[in-house]
Specification:
The complex is a heterodimer of chains A (356) and B (307). Chain A has 356 residues and is mainly alpha-helical. Chain A contains 14 helices and 2 strands; from the N terminus they run H-H-H-H-H-H-E-E-H-H-H-H-H-H-H-H. The longest helix of chain A is centred in the N-terminal third of the chain and has 46 residues. Chain A is globular and about 80 Å long. Chain B contains 12 helices and 2 strands. The longest helix of chain B has 30 residues. Classes of the chains: A mainly alpha (356), B mainly alpha (307).
C-alpha cells in the first residue's frame, strides 16, 4: 500500500469517527436537553399553579420507579404504541392512530379470550385487529391521498365512541356496571415469580421489530422509502407498498399492546375507556424519545411508565393532577422537533474543540 | 317539522363558527407553506383561558380577547419553531397539542378541583329572529364574523399583492425570495393570522357555545378543521362552505339523539355514543372522495433555508 492511499484511509477513517461521534453527541444533547426543558417547563407550570415543583418531582421520581413489576407492566402497552408511531415514521408516515389501534386490539383480544378461554388466541386476534386498522389508514393515504394524521384522528374518535357503545350497550358485565365482560380466569396472563410476563412478550416483540427493520428486505425497503420515495422507485420497488406494510406493522404493535394490557393487567375495559385512553398519544413521545429505534423505545417506555405511575402518586400526595405527564410529554416532543438547533450546537462545540 | 329545520339551522350556525374560523385561518397559514397541526391544542388552550377570564370578569367579550391573545402566542411559538428553528412542523404541532391539553387539565384541577369541567360562565347573547309562531332562529354574532372572515380572506389571498406574496411563499419560496419577498416574515405573519383566528374559535367554544370548559371541549374539531382545509382545496370560500357543511353534521349528531328521546320517551345512554360518530365518519368519507382531486401548496411543510 502506497503512502498516499494510507494517509487517505486514515483521513476517511478519522472523518467517519468524527461524524459518528458527532451523531452520538447530537443524540445525547437532543435527548437530555429535551428532558431538562420538559422538567423546567413543567416546574414553571407547577409553580404558577401553586405547587412546590421540587416536592412534586421528588415524589414523581421516588415513587414512579419504586415498584419494578408494576413499572414494567405499565410500560408494556407504552412500548407497543411507541413502536406503532416509530415504525411508520421510519417509512415516512405519521401514525397518530396508535390510540384506536390499541383500543381495537384490547377489545378484540377481550372478546376472543372471553369466547375461547385462550390467551394465545386473544393476543393473536388483538394484534391482527390493530394491524388491519393501521393498514386501513395506510391504504387511505396511498390510494386516496388522505393525510394520515387527519384520517388517524377521525378513526380514533370513531372507534372511541364505537367501543364505548359496544361496552356499555352490548358486551357489558351484568354484575358490574360500567365494565365490560371480564377476561376468564384461565385466559389471564399472570407474572411468574414477580417477573412481568407481558413485559417480556413486549420486549421480544421489540427485538423482532428490530430484526425486521435492520436485517430484512422489507425493513430495508421501509427505511429507504422514509428517506426518499424517489430513490425507492429508482431502486425498483414500490414505496406505496412499504408504507402500507409499515402501517400494518405499526398497527399490529399497538394492537398487541392493547391485547397484553387487557389480558395481563386490567382483565376488562371500563365504559369510559379510561384504562386505554391516552396510551396511543403517549406512544408518540416514546417513539421520538426512543429515537425511532426499537431498543431505545424499550428504555423510553420504562421512563414514561415511571412518569405516569409517579404522576398518580403525585396526585395522591399533593393533589396535582396526573395530566402533569401530558405537559412533560408535550414539551419533550416539541423540543425533539428542532434537531437543527442541536446540530448547530454540536457543530459549534466540535469546531471550538478543533480550534483548541 | 319546520321547527326542527330552524333548530338544526340554528345549531349549524353555532357549530360552524370554530370550524370556519380555524379552517380559513389554516388556509392562510398553509398557503404560505407552513402547516400547523396544533389547531386542536390552540382550541383547548384558548377555550380554557377564556373560561378563566370570563369567570373572573363576568365579561364574555374579554374572554374572546384572551382567546385571541392565546391564539397569537401559540402561533408565535409554532412560527419560531418551524420558520426560524427549521423544526419538524408536524412533530411540533403534535407536541403542542399534548402540551396544551396537559396545561389546561392541570390548571382545571388546580383552580376548580375538577377533573371534568369548569363552572359555567357568562355567554355572548345570540341574535334571535322570530319565525312563524313559537320558534326563533338564533344567529350567533360570530357566525356573521366567520362568514366575513372567509370572504375577506379569499379576496385578500387572490386579489391583492400581499396575498400573492403569501401564495408565492407556499409554492416556491426561493423564487419568492428572488422577487424580493421576505419569506420568513411572510410565513410568520401568515402563521400568526391563522392561529389568532383559531384562538378566537377556541374562545367561542366556551363563551359562544357550551358556556363552560370541559375535558373534551374540542373533541377533534381542530382536526376536522384541518380536514376541511384539504376539502376546500386551500380556498377560503370553500373552507367557509366546508365549515357550514361539517358544522351541520356536528349539529345533527347532537340534535338527533335529543330529538329521538323527546319523541319516543326512551332514554338513550349507550346509543348516544353511536350518534357522536357522525361528524368524524362524514369527514373521513368526504375527504376520501374529494382528496384525489385537490392540489396542496407545493412547498407545504418544508422548512425554507436561505442560501
Amino acid at each position: 500500500m502506497s503512502k498516499g492511499s494510507l494517509s487517505k484511509l486514515i483521513e476517511t477513517l478519522s472523518e467517519r469517527l468524527l461524524t459518528e461521534r458527532r451523531e452520538y453527541l447530537a443524540t445525547l444533547i437532543e435527548t437530555s436537553s429535551s428532558l431538562i426543558l420538559a422538567l423546567l417547563a413543567g416546574g414553571i407550570v407547577l409553580a404558577v399553579l401553586g405547587y412546590d415543583p421540587l416536592n412534586v418531582y421528588n415524589i414523581l421520581f421516588r415513587y414512579g420507579f419504586g415498584n419494578i413489576t408494576y413499572l414494567l407492566d405499565k410500560s408494556t402497552p407504552l412500548m407497543m404504541t411507541g413502536l406503532a408511531f416509530a415504525i411508520p415514521l421510519i417509512a415516512g408516515l405519521f401514525n397518530i392512530g396508535g390510540e384506536s389501534q390499541l383500543y381495537i386490539g384490547a377489545f378484540i383480544a377481550l372478546l376472543a379470550a372471553y369466547y375461547t378461554h385462550s390467551h394465545v388466541i386473544g393476543i393473536l386476534a388483538g394484534t391482527i385487529a390493530g394491524g388491519l386498522l393501521g393498514a386501513f389508514i395506510g391504504i387511505l393515504r396511498v390510494y386516496r391521498g388522505i393525510n394520515e394524521v387527519i384520517s388517524s384522528i377521525m378513526v380514533n374518535w370513531i372507534f372511541f365512541y364505537l367501543i364505548i357503545y359496544l361496552i356499555s350497550g352490548v358486551y357489558y358485565n351484568p354484575e358490574r356496571p360500567h365494565e365490560s365482560i371480564p377476561i376468564p380466569k384461565d385466559a389471564r396472563i399472570y407474572p411468574i415469580s414477580n417477573i412481568s410476563v407481558i413485559f417480556a412478550i413486549a420486549v421480544l416483540a421489540s427485538i423482532l421489530y428490530y430484526i425486521i427493520l435492520f436485517h430484512t428486505d422489507i425493513g430495508y425497503k421501509m427505511r429507504v422509502t422514509g428517506l426518499s420515495t424517489a430513490s425507492a422507485k429508482y431502486a425498483g420497488f414500490n414505496p406505496d407498498l412499504s408504507m402500507i406494510y409499515s402501517m400494518l406493522l405499526g398497527g399490529a404493535a399497538a394492537g398487541l399492546g392493547g391485547a397484553l394490557l387487557v389480558l395481563g393487567m386490567t382483565y376488562s375495559i371500563d365504559d369510559m375507556l379510561s384504562a386505554v385512553y391516552g396510551l396511543g398519544f403517549t406512544g408518540i413521545g416514546i417513539g421520538l424519545l426512543g429515537r425511532l429505534h426499537p431498543i431505545g423505545i424499550i428504555l423510553a417506555s420504562i421512563f414514561f411508565s415511571g412518569l405516569l405511575i409517579g404522576g398518580q402518586w403525585v396526585e395522591l400526595k399533593t393533589g396535582a393532577p396526573p395530566e402533569l405527564a401530558d405537559t412533560l410529554i408535550g414539551v419533550i416532543v416539541i423540543a425533539l422537533a428542532i434537531p437543527y438547533v442541536y446540530k448547530l450546537l454540536v457543530s459549534r462545540l466540535i469546531q471550538r474543540r478543533v480550534i483548541e | 317539522m319546520i321547527e326542527d329545520i330552524i333548530n338544526i339551522i340554528s345549531n349549524t350556525l353555532i357549530s360552524m363558527v370554530p370550524l370556519t374560523l380555524a379552517s380559513v385561518g389554516e388556509v392562510i397559514t398553509e398557503k404560505s407553506g407552513i402547516v400547523n397541526i396544533g389547531l386542536e391544542g390552540i382550541f383547548i388552550l384558548s377555550a380554557f383561558t377564556s373560561t378563566i377570564v370570563t369567570f373572573h370578569t363576568a365579561d364574555p367579550y374579554l374572554g374572546l380577547i384572551s382567546g385571541i391573545i392565546i391564539g397569537f402566542l401559540s402561533g408565535l411559538l409554532h412560527g419560531v419553531i418551524s420558520i426560524y428553528l427549521k423544526g419538524d412542523q408536524i412533530i411540533a404541532g403534535v407536541g403542542f397539542n399534548s402540551l396544551a391539553y396537559g396545561v389546561s387539565l392541570l390548571s382545571l384541577v388546580a383552580i376548580w378541583r375538577s377533573h371534568g369541567s369548569s363552572p359555567t360562565v357568562a355567554k355572548i347573547p345570540v341574535i334571535l329572529i322570530p319565525i312563524g309562531g313559537y320558534t326563533k332562529l338564533s344567529i350567533p354574532p360570530l357566525s356573521i364574523i366567520a362568514i366575513i372572515v372567509g370572504i375577506a380572506a379569499w379576496w385578500w389571498l387572490y386579489k391583492t399583492p400581499s396575498g400573492l406574496k403569501i401564495r408565492a411563499c407556499g409554492e416556491d419560496p426561493r423564487s419568492a425570495e428572488a422577487m424580493g419577498v421576505n419569506v420568513y416574515s411572510t410565513r410568520l405573519y401568515a402563521t400568526l393570522i391563522g392561529s389568532t383566528l383559531t384562538g378566537l374559535g377556541g374562545a367561542y367554544l366556551v363563551v359562544g357555545w357550551i358556556g363552560q370548559f370541559t375535558k373534551f371541549i374540542s373533541a377533534g374539531r381542530g382536526f376536522i378543521a384541518l380536514a376541511n382545509v384539504a376539502f376546500s382545496n386551500w380556498n377560503p370560500l370553500y373552507a367557509l362552505m366546508g365549515g357550514v357543511f361539517f358544522g351541520f353534521f356536528d349539529a345533527i349528531s347532537i340534535y338527533i339523539p335529543i330529538k329521538l328521546q323527546q319523541t319516543t320517551g326512551q332514554v338513550f345512554t349507550a346509543e348516544a355514543s353511536l350518534f357522536r360518530i357522525i361528524p368524524y365518519l362524514t369527514t373521513l368519507i368526504v375527504v376520501g372522495i374529494i382528496m384525489k382531486k385537490v392540489r396542496m401548496p407545493r412547498a407545504l411543510g418544508k422548512p425554507y433555508i436561505k442560501e
